[in-house]
Amino acid sequence: MSGPVRHIVMWRLRGETAEERAAARLKVKTAFEGLKGRIDGLNHIEVGVDVSDVDYACDVVLVTEFTDAAHLQAYATHPEHLRVRQELGDLRTARFQVDYAIEASVRG
Fold it and tell me: 102: which DSSP letter?
């Protein structure tokens, strides 16, 4: 795959109460937003926190765009990314991911 790649990850997070889940959501959002400008080839990062509160929704979505698949692959083992993963520990209960090529006509 050549050209830009979009990497989307969604998580369900731990928390017994609404307050615990809200704190977990904020922690994930803050940690990933801290990666802005720290990783080569990471051109866009957006973190959304679910506001629907429906039982089948994920808690947080991460939308990133990389220059190409090689930069996405490098991100997986980048020290800053690994630091965030360690910082978040076992907050997640489920993780879903989609990676796909961004077509030029879609980007415009």
Answer: P
